[in-house]
Automatic annotation (TrEMBL):
Signal sequence segment: none
Cross-referenced SMART domains: TPR
Pfam families: TPR_19 (PF14559), TPR_8 (PF13181)
Keyword entries, A-Z: Repeat, TPR repeat
Protein name: Tetratricopeptide repeat protein
Amino acid sequence: MLPLLGCVLLGCVLLTLYAPGGFLRRNEPPPAPAGWSPYDLAGSIEAAQTRLRRQPDDAAVWASLGGMYLEQARRTTDTTYYGKAQGAFERSLRQPTVDGKPYIDAVIGMGALANARHDFAGAVRWAEQARKEAPFRWALYGVLTDAHLELGQYEQAETALRRMLDGRPDLASFTRAARLEHLRGRPGPAREVLRRACAIPGDAAEYAFCQWQLGELSWNNGDPRTALTAYAQALAADPEHVASRAGKARAEAALGHTDQALRDYATAVARSPSFVVEYGELLEHLGNGDGARRQYAVFTAQHKLLAANGAVDNLAIGMFEANHGDADAAVRHLRAEWRRRRSVEVADALGWALHQAERHAEAATYAARADALGGRNALFAYHRGEIEHALGHTAAARDHLRRALSINPHFSPAGATRARALLAEMP
């Protein structure tokens, strides 16, 4: 009887730990749904949808489907997937569980979706809810890291990332660590972390994402040849990686391969409108004003459509207006964004918009903040140099403009040309 009693007790313990709603089931990722492949997203989505037609109350599959929609949005930069992801996560959250608590993957997924939609305070709330229920689900710390970074809360971001690295040192945690190293102005450690991430076995899309990150790091530090190699490796792994296609075009333009750059930009914007302003600025720099205006019109139409659906990207619109439209409108958009989040990108953009609106003294405050916290960033240094020049601070302007060109002499077709012209004029 004793061995039999022992087996019964062991069975009860295991059921308590691993049953749906049990402690470990809430704290450990569930097995992937049948037929799921991290690379073949279209096939994976179809497999999940087929399973849900047979079992519409499967919370795990609804949460996985939401995650796949988010991944599709990241790979394609198509924001229409956000609505699909939200619907899937909400269906998962509505399904009954044994303990009456929401399915934790769906909670974390809602946090990731909030980050993607730039609702960073909302992302923190979702991630903190997940942490109360399942503190050892490491993905929630990625949501927290991203949200705190965008809110300008760098100490909280570093704390969350350290917890994530301690628990799960993988591609997701290493790429976030690289971003923090870059913000600290340490490109060497950032590159080493990314190389470690790229060596982690994974699917082709993950490798492409990692190589794209390496390309961005090389580009931001003024090395377009190495950047071009990384972008090409990303595209060899995943030809549909739009951000790498646009990065390749940017590097080709810097190296003087203009025709190929224009072809790659055209391919990128045909797949995603996210890079139309960048493409338009190159066309404008090359003297093709009509082509540039067509790209800018696409940007305007896209953001009107997003605004009609309640998704206003104040940072993107503000930067566009500051460079190509109404400076006062740019300030309004960027002040609204600053109230929501105080990241270095928003500080720089608001400072630049204020400068374009001829409020140079106020602009200098934001530019200094962005430049101090933004690591080695050529665009931030250039903006600060322009603002100091407008204030009549010639020595400071010269220092910042030289620094911008030393970090990345190709940071912007128009900006780099303007920086050189200003330096040539200065005594």
